[in-house]
Design goal:
By secondary structure, the protein is an all-alpha fold. It has one helix and no strands. It is rod-shaped and about 80 Å long.
C-alpha cells in the first residue's frame, strides 16, 4: 500500500509538471506568433521606407 501511495504521489507530481510545461509552451507559442507578426510588420515598414527613399 505504501508503495502505491508513493507511486501515486510521484505520478501526480509528474502530471502537475507536465501541465505547467504545457501551459508555458502555449504562452511561448503565443508570444512567438506575436513577435513573428511584429517582425513581419516591421520588415514591411522598412521595405516601404526604402522604396520611398529610392523613389526620391
Amino acid at each position: 500500500m505504501n508503495n502505491d501511495v508513493n507511486m501515486n504521489t510521484v505520478a501526480q507530481k509528474l502530471l502537475n509538471k507536465l501541465a505547467v510545461a504545457e501551459y508555458n509552451n502555449t504562452l511561448l507559442e503565443t508570444k512567438n506568433e506575436e513577435l513573428e507578426a511584429e517582425n513581419k510588420r516591421l520588415k514591411s515598414e522598412l521595405e516601404e521606407k526604402n522604396t520611398k527613399k529610392e523613389g526620391k
